[in-house]
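Lab notes, practical 5.
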Amino acid sequence: MIKSLLRWVGWLLLLLFSLLLLLQAWFLLHIIYWNQYNPSSSAFMQTRWEVTRQNQPNVKFYYQWIDYEKISPHLKRAIIAAEDSQFLNHTGFDFKAMQNALERNWQEGRWAAGGSTISQQLAKNLFLSDKKTPWRKLQEAVITYMLEKVMTKKRILEIYLNIIEWGENVFGAEAASQHYFGVSASTLTARQAAFLASIVPSPRFYDRNRTAKKLLKKTDIILKRMPPSQIP
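Output from the prediction step:
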């Protein structure tokens, strides 16, 4: 009886392990595909679409892919300065930034800062939900490792700039540039780029509050950090 039970437990564990491997293979195959072809959507975009459509059945999302070479260098520098200053130096994880974020969150007693890199944010946006669970963070780490192994920094930044949320139903650098300034992402000035980078943490809120003092102050800070920021 006990041997039979152990056998069934063993088969169950093997089945679960096999399913887990298949899931990781599914992620990896998508990453390999998107290394050559541009994603038309992301898990985050799909989630936002489903949530928004409940109240707005005819909602329209603004999204248009723009190649890396056509995106203003100012925006690339602004995003790196704001989101991940060590982007070109790390292999997907910035442990010092994580430690600083944990210390700040502990001191303030709330989730005030995150230590995620651009690669980690891309992993989450492409495949995962926004739920902060241990499983999601572990899966995010695995996907981040895959991204860094398969893609160049240039490709990671290109996809990131093209799929992140930048306002109410606005996704990607080109749609954001048109939405806020009526220009292409290729012609953004340094200040416009800094403004867009400052919106990223709370895009829907700042879309409705474009003159908020905190937003304008952050824009100035990012603008000063941009010149030394290196881009791929």
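Observations recorded by the TA: The longest strand covers residues 165-167. The chain has a mean pLDDT of 90.
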